[in-house]
Specification:
- It is built from 7 helices and 5 strands; from the N terminus they run αααααβαββββα.
- The chain is an alpha+beta fold.
- The chain has 2 domains: 79 residues, NADH-quinone oxidoreductase subunit E (Arc Repressor Mutant, subunit A), CATH 1.10.10; 84 residues, Glutaredoxin (3-Layer(aba) Sandwich).
- It has a 5-stranded mixed β-sheet.
- A hairpin with a 3-residue loop joins strand 4 and strand 5.
- Helix 2 runs antiparallel to helix 3, helix 3 packs antiparallel against helix 4 and helix 4 packs across helix 5.
- The longest helix has 19 residues.
- Bound molecules: FE2/S2 (inorganic) cluster.
- FE2/S2 (inorganic) cluster binds next to helix 6.
């Protein structure tokens, strides 16, 4: 079960709106395309929205649709297709560990076990304190660097042995303990 599926049942209601700064960044992305192709900025716009809110509430998907001149369902189709977009809240930090065969044979399974044991959760779950979501990923194109994982959909971490995983978790836990974004 993916993190998306596990959290989908608990989508919170709220008045979510993008900040002026997020809208400015989206406008900047739109200028990278011809006016009649502003919809091409949809993935960048969703990323900006998610960076700000941590996930993509339906109201914000609609806001993105309005800015790009798209229908809300067209934006939802993009947001729901790609694994890096979250349609429900997740932990402050998401760790996606590769367990495909080449990695599994080179420490990937051990890394996955260590993450699950130390965090006390399984794939697709979020820790009770909301600090971490753990997910299982497909090949990240870095098989020679196994075990590999990606933090927050953005930062690739290679050669993640037991010591490096412990250091990473300590660092992320300290960050998650800071005031919410
Ligand atoms: S199998 Fe893990 S990065 Fe390729």
């Amino acid at each position: 079960m993916s993190a998306h599926a596990s959290a989908a049942a608990g989508v919170p209601q709220g008045d979510y709106r993008l900040s002026a700064e997020a809208l400015r960044l989206i406008d900047r992305e739109i200028t990278k395309y011809p006016p009649e192709q502003r919809q091409s900025a949809v993935m960048a716009a969703l990323t900006i929205a998610q960076d700000e809110l941590g996930w993509l509430p339906p109201q914000v998907q609609e806001e993105v649709a309005a800015v790009l001149g798209m229908t809300p369902i067209a934006v939802y189709e993009v947001a729901s297709f790609y694994h890096m977009y979250h349609l429900a809240p997740i932990g402050r930090h998401k760790i996606t560990v590769c367990t495909n065969l080449p990695c599994a044979l080179s420490g990937g399974n051990a890394a996955a076990r260590q993450l699950q044991q130390r965090l006390g959760i399984r794939f697709g779950q979020t820790t009770a304190d909301g600090a971490f979501t753990l997910d299982e990923g497909e090949c990240m194109g870095a098989c020679g660097d196994a075990p590999v994982l990606i933090v927050d959909n953005k930062k690739m971490c290679s050669f993640m042995d037991e010591s490096r995983i412990n250091t990473l978790l300590d660092t992320l836990a300290a960050d998650a303990a800071k005031p919410a974004r």
